[in-house]
From TrEMBL:
<protein>
    <recommendedName>
        <fullName>Phosphogluconate dehydratase</fullName>
        <ecNumber>4.2.1.12</ecNumber>
    </recommendedName>
</protein>
<keyword id="KW-0119">Carbohydrate metabolism</keyword>
<dbReference type="Pfam" id="PF00920">
    <property type="entry name" value="ILVD_EDD_N"/>
</dbReference>
<comment type="pathway">
    <text>Carbohydrate metabolism; Entner-Doudoroff pathway.</text>
</comment>
<dbReference type="Pfam" id="PF24877">
    <property type="entry name" value="ILV_EDD_C"/>
</dbReference>
<keyword id="KW-0411">Iron-sulfur</keyword>
<feature type="binding site">
    <location>
        <position position="222"/>
    </location>
    <ligand>
        <name>[4Fe-4S] cluster</name>
    </ligand>
</feature>
<feature type="domain" description="Dihydroxy-acid/6-phosphogluconate dehydratase N-terminal">
    <location>
        <begin position="68"/>
        <end position="381"/>
    </location>
</feature>
<dbReference type="InterPro" id="IPR056740">
    <property type="entry name" value="ILV_EDD_C"/>
</dbReference>
<feature type="binding site">
    <location>
        <position position="155"/>
    </location>
    <ligand>
        <name>[4Fe-4S] cluster</name>
    </ligand>
</feature>
<dbReference type="InterPro" id="IPR037237">
    <property type="entry name" value="IlvD/EDD_N"/>
</dbReference>
<dbReference type="InterPro" id="IPR004786">
    <property type="entry name" value="6-phosphgluc_deHydtase"/>
</dbReference>
<keyword id="KW-0456">Lyase</keyword>
<comment type="similarity">
    <text>Belongs to the IlvD/Edd family.</text>
</comment>
<keyword id="KW-0004">4Fe-4S</keyword>
<comment type="function">
    <text>Catalyzes the dehydration of 6-phospho-D-gluconate to 2-dehydro-3-deoxy-6-phospho-D-gluconate.</text>
</comment>
<dbReference type="InterPro" id="IPR042096">
    <property type="entry name" value="Dihydro-acid_dehy_C"/>
</dbReference>
């Protein structure tokens, strides 16, 4: 193992000793009590309710000798990434019967699309939807009918929420089943160019809609390497997929074969099968470190600086941004996929894909290869590539060399010697910067602040022509406690246009950017947030702000005496409290912890959300 990876892993183990120990003890007890099919613990009345509508599966469910799979689905037909899952339950039930078991849809979870809510009021429910999904997953599995679980989900908060919820049932084996990316349409680079021209008033709305429709054009995940596709990389790195599942297109024979294989394997690794692999033994400190390293190596989404902390905490593992930063600094950047390059995830997959990446990281000693993956092997087996030999699903080694060095490279010849994410800290607090898409000459700035209370205020100032010269745009009141921490991706075309016309610009915010954060230096997730009286609440127009991603600092050039004397700005947040369902999430805004603690309202102890 690389000495830094080994040291960080051991530090996490020590920090998590109490919480992880408590979690494992609970799961050990639950696993010990799980003798025979779970449903046989139910009363006759309970069980009759549970199989009343099960048709041809009734004899199996009543007989009590075979495994029963609980399907937790995030299907809806508005999300292109989840629309292919409409028919998965039918396929899974058939595969389970053929394997001698049964399967039932245990429940559905909400699945909102950030692409639809981006820049709109609904986005203020986005982060909190992750916790709602976790709770819905728990409700789905609370019937205690199941011996294994298949989680159907792909996108941003949905996979983290499913995993957080499933970890409360960690005594069961859990396999994640995605749908895969849509085929390439209009390239991401071309789409971004039209967006930027529209922001500058140089393209019509009809031209913009044509570009967007040509980009997002079919069932499947969006093709840029944002949060949804970063989810899939992390699931592979933590061993929660059948090998190579992440980026196989929907509606293909290979995709169906992988779904069938996941069904069969879930029965095989249940306590009734031959190779018991409960979730709590797969997700431990090593798996979480693997996810952080894979995220850094591929230039993945900044959103996982929040989500991964929350996922880890659900398994009793305590991580922070120092861990992520230290791992990223020794992890080579070996993937260039949009927004970190021109390629989409289909190209990434064709050039070698996640299997190539995992093998390179294993050989470099940067990940723990000995984790017990759900596929029945270790991480080296997880790096195998699926293919169809006629109708038979088989796996083979990933390509020995990259098939496109402009997209995927070996660890010995990376795009950058460091990974894509950095922790920054200083007098303005702590935050995250994604550097993988930011050119080295733009990674440092010192400029006067322009302070805004919303992204719409900044966009209005841009249209009025008042954003001239170098500046650091400060957008505050966007943290989890203030308004649910919406993404501010709507700003990306405007900030990019300013940079392209020669201005030195950066963003500083206690909010989030999209997982597709781009070429403008952005210090995000700044904590403590403004609503908690954090330093960002004291910033005024004209203050000199310094952001240095390479040095990992965010500071303000205001004399100490003046800085300490300033009163925090208290924004009027009344408008964020109602409308579009926001009134229903008041409890989460009141309870939620910091971004660095995972932005979750599910835990209140000092090692969790506080």
């Amino acid at each position: 193992m690389h000495p830094v990876v080994e040291r960080v892993t051991q530090r996490i183990v020590e920090r998590s000793r109490r919480t992880r120990g408590d979690y494992v003890a609970r799961m050990d007890a639950a696993a010990a009590a799980h003798e025979g099919p779970a449903r046989m613990r139910l009363s006759c009345g309970n069980l009759a309710h549970a199989f009343a509508a099960s048709g041809e599966d009734k004899p199996r469910l009543r007989g009590g000798y075979t495994g029963n799979i609980g399907i937790v689905t995030a299907y809806n037909d508005m999300l292109s990434a989840h629309q292919p899952m409409e028919h998965y339950p039918t396929l899974i039930r058939m595969a389970a019967r053929n394997a001698g078991g049964s399967a039932q849809v245990a429940g559905g979870v909400p699945a909102m699309c950030d692409g639809v809510t981006q820049g709109r009021v609904g986005m203020e429910l986005s982060l909190f939807s992750r916790d709602a999904i976790a709770m819905a997953t728990a409700v789905s599995l609370s019937h205690d009918m199941f011996d294994a679980v298949l989680c159907l989900g792909v996108c941003d908060k949905i996979v983290p929420g499913l995993l957080i919820g499933a970890l409360s049932f960690g005594h069961l084996p859990v396999i994640f089943v995605p749908a895969g990316p849509m085929p390439q349409g209009l390239t991401n680079k071309e789409k971004a160019a039209v967006r930027q021209r529209y922001a500058e008033g140089k393209a019509t709305r009809e031209e913009l809609l044509d570009a967007e429709a040509a980009s997002y054009h079919a069932p499947g995940t969006c093709t840029f390497y944002g949060t949804a596709n970063s989810n899939q990389t992390m699931m592979e790195a933590m061993g929660l997929h059948m090998p190579g599942t992440a980026f196989v297109n929907p509606g293909t024979p290979l995709r169906d074969a992988l779904t069938v294989a996941a069904t069969e394997q879930s029965l095989r690794i249940s306590k009734l099968g031959e190779d018991f692999r409960p979730l709590y033994r797969t997700i431990d400190e090593r798996a979480i470190v693997n996810a952080m390293v894979a995220l850094a190596a591929t230039g993945g989404s900044t959103n996982h600086a929040i989500h991964l902390v929350a996922m880890a905490r659900a398994a009793g593992v305590i991580i922070d941004w120092d861990d992520l930063d230290e791992l990223s600094r020794v992890t080579p950047l070996i993937v260039r996929a949009y927004p970190n390059g021109a390629a989409d995830v289909n190209h990434f997959h064709a050039a070698g894909g996640i299997g190539f990446v995992l093998r390179e990281l294993i050989d470099a000693g940067l990940v723990h290869a000995d984790i017990p993956c759900v596929s029945g092997g270790d991480l080296r087996q997880q790096a195998m590539e699926p293919w169809l030999d006629g109708t038979a699903l088989r796996w083979r080694d990933p390509p020995a060399v990259t098939l496109d060095a402009g997209v995927v490279r070996p660890a010995a010849d990376p795009f950058d010697v460091e990974g894509g994410l950095r922790r920054v800290q200083g007098t303005l607090g702590r935050g995250i910067v994604k550097i993988s898409a930011v050119a080295p000459e733009y990674r440092r700035i010192e400029a006067p602040a322009r302070v805004f209370e919303s992204q719409d205020d900044l966009l209005a100032a841009f249209k009025e022509g008042t954003l001239q010269g170098d500046l650091v745009a400060v957008i505050r009141g966007q943290g989890p406690r203030a308004n649910g921490m919406p993404e501010l991706h709507k700003l990306t075309p405007t900030l990019a246009a300013m940079q392209d016309r020669g201005q030195r610009v950066a963003l500083l915010t206690d909010g989030r950017m999209s997982g597709a954060s781009g070429k403008v230096l952005s210090a995000i997730h700044v904590t403590p947030e403004s609503a908690d009286g954090g330093p960002i609440s004291r910033v005024r127009d004209g203050d000199r702000i310094r952001i240095d991603a390479d040095a990992g600092t965010i500071d303000i050039g205001v004399p100490q005496s003046e800085w300490q004397a300033r009163e925090p700005h208290r924004a009027d947040l009344a408008a964020n409290r109602t409308g579009m369902g926001r009134e229903l999430f008041a409890m989460m805004r009141a309870q939620v912890g910091t971004a660095e603690a995972g932005g979750s309202a599910l835990w209140t102890d000092e090692e969790g959300a506080r």
